[in-house]
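Q: Structure tokens for this one, please.
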Amino acid sequence: MDSPSSSDPTSTPETTSLPVAPERLRLIRRIEPVPFAIITLALVFFLYQAVGGGITLLLFKGAITEDNVQLVRWATLVGQIVFILIPTLILMRLRAPRVIEFARLKVPDYKEILLTAVAVFALQQVLQGYMLLQDAIPVPAGLERILDQIKDLIEQTYLVLVTAHTPLELLFVVVVVALVPAVSEELLFRGLIQRSFEQVVVGPRGAIITGIIFAAFHLIPYSVVPLAILGCYLGYIVYRSQNITVAISAHFFNNFVACVAAYLQVDDDFVALAPSGAASPALLVANYLLFGVVFLAATYYFVQVTEPTVRSES
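A: Here is the predicted structure, written as tokens:
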């Protein structure tokens, strides 16, 4: 699995015996992996951010309030499905005859699910430490004011979107914010984009490239580094396990924690060792070191668990 594929960007042992595809399909499948990935990203970005975002802006005039939040959630749900998930599945089908094999969609081992959930929670805690350091970096006053305004606007909008007041509303929020994005974004980034880069680069570099793109796609300036780190981790566990379902479950768990935290009115800068919020600098350092070790341990055991998969794919 560590060596790039042959000149045909979609050739696999499973597809070589299939009938010859129609001319238009063969043309799409002859596009080199990197140009295909760029075209895919440009198309989905335009559909989701420009078309979907533009429609949402016109409908709700850029403001999410308690009065319209339910409609915004429905718009978000439909936008994820129509502008990310469906185009991704269509492009996958055009790119390869067997979508499930191409996307590496398999039933995961329960140990992989548990280990990645632990790793994601630990990584969240570590990244809280990074965000504190990032906030402490001095920037020019004018730029700082602009960044603070962007950050406050995004945080307030997101908080209204994810805050639920009843268990039933929480369930819908989980579907909108955690389940659908986990499926649609993982199929796009790890299922299609990373799969394309893996055909031209060796090792986990495709996961790193895709993780950086994943962060940029979200258009959240102050969260680029945490999103890139999370994206690289999600890409690595797909590369390691050869199973995108593991990344879907980890992505879902990451967003699910945010939904539950908002429902329980827990601050987004929650520190596990100081749940009351009163944490000394020493306790903060201890928290980040502890969860850094937990993340490394969970990732180490994940590597051990997936060793048979790696050998079988070699």
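A few notes: The radius of gyration is 21 Å. Residues 1-20 have pLDDT under 50 and may be disordered.
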